[in-house]
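HUMAN:
Could you generate one sequence with tokenized structure?
ASSISTANT:
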Amino acid sequence: MKARIPSGFAVIFFETDLSKAKGFDESELTDYERSVYNQLGQVEREKIQKGYAAVVHDLSGRCPDCEFNIEGYVPPKSAIENLARHLLPSIQAYYADEKHRTDFCVQESYEESVEGAASNKDEY
């Protein structure tokens, strides 16, 4: 039995601070973007018109992803805080291990020496 190739689109909306969203102008769309946009449902088009950032992925893999309202996208402060709240405990646990702190210091020292060598080279 031959595997079926998926078809259609997956639309991924980003939580968006609409007070900072750039206005959506349908006339600025490329032909490809307009084609994808016109295939979306009314609800998806309305969210894009309101300023929500979105990526539309062609499930068949034959066409590139299409982005709407991504340029200048600013996530809401609550999304950044939520991400930080979830990542911070893992970061703290990682660096609680002495070996990881030492590895970080060695890497940081190496980067500083490389940057120093590059700036000295520019002086000549």
Observations:
- The chain has a mean pLDDT of 84.
- Residues 58 and 101 are 43 Å apart (CA to CA).
- DSSP finds four helices and three strands in the chain.
- Residues 9-68 form one domain.
